[in-house]
Amino acid sequence: MLSKSLVEEYESKRDSVIFQIGAMLYELVTSFIYVAKPLSGQRETTQRQLNVEKKLSDVLIVDSLKKILALTHENITYSEQSMRKIFTGLFMHHYRDIDPETQMSCVKSLGIWVVSYPTLFLQYIYLKYLGWTLNDKNAGVRRASILALQSLLERDALSMLKTNKVKIGATEEVNTMAPRLEAIVERMLENFFYNTEKDMQATRNNAMAMS
């Protein structure tokens, strides 16, 4: 039988590993967001300049701006691909971890990323993880999911998505997609609260039947 000191040492090391996983996941993706966000603004500015210079027929400036635009787009693409790989390699392996603290760390991080960089993360392929964890058996994980989704609606990330997408000329796509995503998020929360009320009612009924 393990001594109390060995158990405490094990738990301490486990908690340290959990913290490191959560911190690494958050910091890796966040670092790429810090790179991609200003580049997106730079791409918008360069595209506007290019549109103006094309009308002025200044070949040298046009060529220079095209090269800058291509390089900026390449760097954004690299950053977004890296975020996708980190998400697949780390998040997807840990968001259903047996330890609730690891799960909560993953869910909280995803909620921050969706608001910070909606151009990439405000898509159903990422939002569905918040929907799934709404039904987790751990109350802390469910709460983290609720807070993430509520933050998304309160901070109007859907409008941010529209702004960011317009920068790269995808207005029609966003005007169609944003309302659908908003409806999905609201439906996730509605279903959660509905199911919670049903569970509470069932518990009350069982208690009355036993009394």
TrEMBL record:
Single GO molecular function: chromatin binding
InterPro entries linked: ARM-type_fold, Cohesin_Scc3/SA, SCD
GO biological process: sister chromatid cohesion
GO cellular component annotations of the record: chromatin; cohesin complex; nucleus
Domain SCD: residue ranges: 91-188
A Pfam match: SCD
Top-rank taxon: Eukaryota
Record protein name field: SCD domain-containing protein
Organism lineage string: Eukaryota, Viridiplantae, Streptophyta, Embryophyta, Tracheophyta
